[in-house]
Specification:
Elements (H helix, E strand, L loop, with lengths): L4 E4 L15 H14 L3 E5 L5 H10 L8 E7 L11 H8 L4 E7 L2 H8 L3 H17 L3 E7 L1 H7 L1 H14 L3 E6 L6 H14 L4 E5 L6 H11 L3 E4 L13 H11 L7 H4 L2 H11 L17 E2 L2 H9 L17 E2 L7 H10 L8 H16 L8 H11 L8 E11 L5 E11 L2 E9 L2 H13 L10 E9 L10 E8 L4 E8 L2 H22 L1
Parallel strand pairs: 1-2, 1-8, 2-3, 3-4, 4-5, 5-6, 6-7, 7-8, 9-10
Antiparallel strand pairs: 11-12, 12-13, 14-15, 15-16
Helix pairs in contact: 1-2, 1-12, 5-7, 6-7, 8-9, 9-10, 14-15, 16-18, 17-18
Length: 522
């Protein structure tokens, strides 16, 4: 199989995902990260469509990209307009990129119902646009929008559209499953048929509306496409685009395609998390290859086998893509899991089955009461060390009080007063917050800062509450999960109680204790 070109459209198609809005600075950061990963083409946006994209292309000229080429995206000329006078095409030239991608309609339904022009005019729009951009010294990629739907509806016309682009000098013809409704076997068959009549190298641009975008992209490559389009983490409109992260890993590890280097592949998890952070999105734990749960094992039988030979329940070695194996502790765990988890924490239980039994029994009792330690590994580490008497609390609670006030203007305010004991010294302080948990968090860190200055590095990043028995109504137990972060790490802690403030306090204390424990090791 020839070398496959990776074409990223996170900054354009990915930006159309609900909840994502890139700043120019965000786009610059993502560009640099994709360049480090070794992506061949980065679609930066649609110059002329909005001021932000125009500013980005101006600033992007200062980027020192070593592996990637920046690409501008736009449409063919408008009906009844000369290509040389078309505003969209001239804006694309103004972006200053060597390569330009333009899309055109290849489904007769769109030509008739959206463009409302005759089929012949659409062919001229494609031909004229490619020829004009070529005459201006640009390399042109042509995205045949809705190609698979068009091919199924009117094969002859869909082929005419891509032939028009090919004969006009397009360097790549990209077949788009824009509605994401084509199944994998159809993609393979259609690409094979197109390859027999079109000699311009082909690309694939798949959307995920049937949850087949990655499979369709891989099938298209196996059928002869040499360019794969996608977005990091599959971001995109509706159900998203093909996940370029999964495409890269599958090409490299399953098909032996040298699309990026082995060193770059080890950065895949970090890139996925970085882009998720920039997008202000949580990386899906179950995302293949790079998700937090991608190599997580819970069942005792599975873990026992993994410890003997990882191939028994893993299709790839986690470190190859920069991820890690996680052995989850729960009521389903066996003694071998406890021993392994303790070893990860530098606690050597040796063959002390009594200690591992005691930890397992404590764990099972707590999980029966509503705890869920596989989601809160920081709390789990503290639990194991406490049971083993290998942990000394950094502070003691003397008491706290939380006041919630609703004022005349309708605004709510919260204040927490807290008294802590550190060694022999008592610290009594108060703090305000947006809510009771925020106020408590601020108060505890304020009280501890003079004793542990690095506590100021941490902050809460997520807060989740789950009612464990809805039938109990307001008397139901609740589980609180808190995610905290400092300059280098993030971690989850847990608390369970009939009182949401008490459950939150438990999780907060574990979060702070874990940070202090981590710093004490440094």
């Amino acid at each position: 199989m020839n070398k496959i070109e990776l074409y990223d459209t996170t900054l354009r198609d990915g930006a159309q995902s609900e909840g994502i809005s890139f700043s120019v600075a965000d786009k610059m950061k993502v560009c640099e990260k994709l360049d480090e990963l070794g992506v061949h083409f980065i679609e930066g946006g649609w110059p002329g469509a909005n001021p932000k994209d125009m500013e980005f292309f101006k600033k992007a000229k200062s980027l020192n990209l070593k592996n990637s080429e920046l690409v501008a995206f736009g449409s063919t000329r408008h009906a009844g307009t000369e290509a040389s006078r078309d505003k969209v095409l001239n804006a694309l030239l103004g972006a200053g990129t060597k390569t330009i991608t333009i899309f055109g309609k290849s489904w007769d339904l769109h030509v008739k119902d959206v463009f409302k022009c005759d089929l012949g005019e659409n062919l001229l729009m494609i031909e004229d646009s490619v020829k004009f951009l070529k005459s201006m010294g640009r390399t042109v990629f042509f995205d045949a929008e809705h190609f698979f739907d068009g091919y199924k509806a009117n094969k002859e016309y869909a082929i005419k559209c891509i032939k028009a682009a090919s004969l006009a000098g397009a360097a790549r013809i990209v077949l788009c499953d824009t509605n994401g409704g084509t199944v994998t076997s159809q993609v393979f068959e259609i690409v094979e048929e197109v390859k027999a009549v079109i000699h311009t190298p082909l690309g694939i641009h798949a959307h995920n509306d049937c949850d087949m975008a990655v499979a369709n992209s891989i099938a298209a490559i196996q059928a002869g496409c040499i360019q794969a389009h996608g977005t990091i983490n599959g971001y995109g409109e509706r159900c998203g685009n093909a996940n370029l992260v999964s495409i890269i890993a599958t090409l490299k590890l399953k098909l032996g395609v040298d699309c990026i280097s082995g060193i770059q592949l080890k950065e895949l998890t970090e890139v996925a998390r970085f882009v998720a952070e920039v997008c202000n999105m949580k990386l899906d734990d179950r995302q293949p290859y790079v998700g937090n749960s991608a190599f997580a094992h819970k069942a005792g039988v599975h873990i026992n086998a993994i410890l003997k030979n990882p191939l028994t329940y893993e299709h790839a070695e986690p470190g190859i893509v920069g991820n890690r194996r996680r052995l989850l502790i729960s009521e389903l765990s066996g003694k071998s899991t406890i021993l392994m988890k303790a070893q990860e924490m530098n606690l050597n239980l040796g063959k002390d089955t009594e200690k591992s039994k005691k930890i397992l029994k404590t764990l099972q009792d707590l999980e029966h009461g509503g705890y869920h330690f596989e989601s809160a590994e920081a709390s789990l580490e503290l639990l194991i060390k406490r049971v083993m008497k290998k942990f000394k609390d950094f502070f003691e609670l003397e008491g706290f009080r939380v006041i919630i006030e609703k004022r005349k203007n309708g605004k709510m305010s919260s204040e927490a007063t807290i008294k802590l004991k550190v060694g022999k010294e008592i610290e009594h302080t108060a703090a305000q917050g947006d809510g009771p948990v925020n106020a408590l968090d601020s108060a505890i860190r304020k009280a501890l800062k003079k004793f542990y200055p690095r506590i100021g590095e941490m902050h809460l990043t997520d807060y989740k509450v789950r009612v464990l028995d809805e039938k109990q109504g307001t008397a139901a137990r609740v589980r609180v999960l808190i995610q905290s972060q400092d300059k280098t790490d993030s971690w989850w802690t847990i608390g369970v109680s009939e009182n949401i403030i008490d459950a939150s306090w438990q999780a907060l204390v574990d979060s702070v204790e874990y940070k202090l424990l981590k710093d004490s090791k440094a």
